[in-house]
Here is the input.
Amino acid sequence: MTTATATLAPKAFKSELKPIWCPGCGDFGVVQALYRALSAIGRPAHEIAFISGIGCSSRIPGYTTAYGFNSVHGRALPIAQGLKMARPELLVLAAGGDGDGFSIGGGHLPHAVRRNQNITYIVMDNQIYGLTKGQLSPTSPKGLKTVTSVDGSLENPVNPLMYVLTYGAPFVAQGTPADLPGLVEIIEAAIRYPGFAFVNVQSPCVTFGEPEQQIKTQKATMESLEGMGHDPGNLIEALDLSRAYGTTLHTGLFYRSPEPPPTFDSLVHERQQRMMADALPRERILEQFIQR
Amino acid sequence: MSRSLVIGMAGSGGDGIVSAGESLIGACASEGYYAIMTKSFGSQIRGGESSCRVRLAVDPVLNSGGALDVAVVLSWDDFLKFGAELPVSGRAMVVYDTRTGVAADDLPLVGVTPAEVFPVPISDLAREAAGTDRAKNTVILGLLAGWLGIGQEATLRGVRKKFAKKGAELIEANERAFHAGVAYAEAHPTAESRKMDPATGSGAKLLTDGNDMCAAAAIFAGCKFYGGYPITPSTEVMQFLSREIWKYGGVLLQAEDEIAGIGAALGASFGGKKAMTATSGPGLSLKSEVLGLATIAELPLVVVDVQRGGPSTGMPTKSEQADLFQAVFSAHGDVVRPVLAPTTVGDTFTTTVEAFNIAEQYQTPVILLSDQEIAQRKEVLDPIDTSEIQLIDRTLPTDAELENYQRFQLTPSGVSPISHPGMEGGNYLGAGIEHDEHGAPTASGRVHAVMNEKRIKKLGPLHKRDDLFRIEGNENAPLALVSWGSSAGVCREAVQLAADRGLDVKLLVPYLLYPVNEDIYRRFFASVVGGLVVEQSHLGQLYRILRMYIDVPGGVVSFCRSGANPFRPKEIVAELRDLALGLQRTLGESRQPQE
Here is the structure.
């Protein structure tokens, strides 16, 4: 099935659909980075399946030439996992926003992590609900005033990086369209990683986002983990650094398990091979109910 | 001699009553009898009271039967807790442990005097023969084998098999307990012979329950993915598949919740594989958003709902047929979603395969509405001939169609060839958002209307599927029964009983509940003056759905009640008789000479 060719240009992954995103939306950068990463990977589009939920960012599969599934709110991960179990030979990507992944679909994330399928999950985290026009999101900072928190949010935001690290994800990274080459590199590394790879992208909302979250500010303030000398094999250090989520924009690789654990898909394959030997033929399945 | 017997047993959790029932039905099956076994428990996880009913017969058994012919009581307190589930009739023999301290002429039964009463020192026999009280259930098997003449060798074989892993000592102890029971029965013969007629059926029989049958059918149909979450009374579907599906190249996911279970199954179907999830009412409520997604994304999916008493947690271990509205109407928008219902353990096989066929052929989610009664009862049945069963796979695009592929192409039938990831040229965007023929999202009212029409039109052929209905009885009969699910098995016996009593009744059993095949009901009702739509729910949900689509004759009324205790054939005949008499009176009045 896998036919790796190095000749696929980034534009081979760009579909004819025109994005609905507002001009200047960070998600344009994410999809550009994805085209380049997929070009570097070299798998043809029909061997790639891209699953998303609902939200501005969940429109992204339609802007690629891969098989896409823009599903329902919060359910990208279960659908992606079922697909990957059914067709482990595919390159499976999942994507969505912070509301999709950490709020309505938040219950799925720890389980997707612990199953450790070879899936890359990209969250476009803009700390706001954009599609529904500017309500509080699970990553909105405490005190944020929005149309549903007129006097300011009373809740602490979730820390997606720390969550996913503590769930046990073997690959955790953060990027931003403010550093496009860096984002390409992160997404490509995530796809190449043999296991569940989580990429949080601080993708600003130009319409409802805060001024300090915009590309210009990000460019001025972001800090490269590599530049800081962070060792991505050090989980404790990664956890420590993840505490800065919401205050400092760290980019790059937080954690990559130096010894990738076996994936769910490889364990399934091993079990199937072992058990197929003593199966009744499918047409004779009822024989096991015969009472002798 | 008897052609049919209903045996009911009750005791405390540790007494092994259900295990005795399982040994008994196993022996019946190897002897060539037909049988149905149901079990019932108190609400405790462990301990508490437990009971089972075994109905065995020379002829195929259609339901779990009415009042008991034989009652076995290890504890009267426990037995009486089951009330309507274990009714003792005047023709019954009652066997009870003398250790209960109850006098034979002072049984705690109200308004009924059983034909024969046997106080038996069951516990003492067990201790003497096996050295432990725990062999009480094996003594009971010996008593029943002795009194009812059910194969001793077959019962013993079952007992040996059960203790095979526990060592020779335990096997021998139980053999002694069994023989002690047989000897006691032979020394104390019944006044009236209660021996079963010899079984006439030849050849091996199948013994299983509806949930295992459903799971086996899924494998037969080529199901390669199961995603689900444990929920009573459907969990055995997942348990069976967790042992089996891998052997057939499939995968099973015990998901983190009901939504993930159906989501993963839908993902597998998007990947081109046959997929299933199973649940009960509360789980179906949670799954409904993804059901809607499967409809608009036009993906095949089989969703099993093993109904239990509702709403909410309701009665998880009791049967009810009150999820029909949910199956038909859940998920928003203009949707037609096929709903099928099996009526016995045996036809759960063909109905499940049909669910896969319809799902694949029409690219739609299909709900299989089983119910606790058939899902968890054990049934002895004849082997099923599967050689003629056709399996349908989804229509893939041809190479020519992949040239300029349109996933949701408008075709005369409404069904569009479906690709899946991995197929070159078949790339498309699947979506819950409304889309055009290519799959591109749209907010056009015109496209939305066209696509709604496509998705509903493609199911049109289902309205003509007369083969998904069973009709019995004289086609010109003025009286009628309509029933579905486990209640249909009761109605089939009621029709025979009614015929014996001179009532001219016919029966319609839909396996396809929705969409409604208007024609078959119209034809069926053409001769009908009066009848009952029999279903185990408070509202009578099928009756109400039929009235949405068909002019149901005025004399046809709903005969329904809330779940837990199944209908009995006799009460249906009695209701039908009352209905007929009422219609007769009206007819008589209308024929009075006018002043």
Chain A touches chain B through 56 residues (CB under 8 Å). Chain A has one domain: 10-259. Chain A is about 30% helix and 15% strand.
